[in-house]
Amino acid sequence: MSGCLICGSTRYATLFQASDRLYRTTTREFSVVRCVECGLLRLDPQPPPDELRRYYPDSYWFAPGVDAASRLEEAYRRIVLRDHVSFVERALRSSRAAGPLLDVGCGGGLFLGLMRARGFRVAGLDFSREAAAIAWTRQQVPAVCAMLENPPFRPQSLAGVTMFHVLEHLYDPRVYLARVYDLLAPDGRIIVQVPNAASWQSRLLGRSWNGMDVPRHLFDFRSRDLEKLLESCGFEIVRRKFFSLRDNPAGLASSLTPSLDPMARRVRGIAEAPTMRLFKDLIYFALVVGSLPFAIAEAAFRAGSTVMIEARRP
Ligand SMILES: [Zn+2]
pTM of the entire structure? Predict the structure, then answer.
């Protein structure tokens, strides 16, 4: 890494060493460092692409099954997506730009399916062919397997672009943001969500905070870092939201008990009898519900464990 993504400084201090706490794809330790000039946190050195790929589990997105438990999980996921849906809906309705909404990193397409049901034209991109196929077949959302570096869209043809939990995974987030700028019509909106490294959860839990997600998160943004980054790419900040019903309480629950996280259990291939699976799911759900008051409180002080920002392309 030549320098800090935000300020360019090459001076940094090491905060701590950590390994893959959630999915346990490796036992290797990585360094999280803080830029001495601007305070941005990052993984340094970054693992090269061939190595980083090994730290991504195969089924990193949600693929609903047909059994009762899966249907229940999909119903739950629809409910907890409401913050994302209402935030993006307000952004699009307040914009004069015409065109579809593109979700970068669309996974199984549940969010886009909900936006489509609200009358928006939608499209999805995902680097996983399987995820894009699930978005098509399960949510009837047009999704393609592609990277934003080579998007199958014309310049200035989109009304909105969403990127939920994408930027912190990229080697160079500026490349993506520049591409989004080109794709958005004037007055179009970009909505970005990342874990907030200035949250109460982050400050209290440090390296145990789920939002660090070592080694998959190459950057750990605070809200102000993300705002600086967006502005340096030509966007104007419109709104911020520090609460997400889907992410914030569950993030605390998974920080406290990573081995109960449902996605981690699935990804790690933990063998569980159906009764044990249900039992663990219920304990985890109780932890999520118990985490809700804390998540609401930190968000009220603008220190929620995720931040969602709407920015406008002039
Ligand atoms: Zn810096």
Answer: 0.94
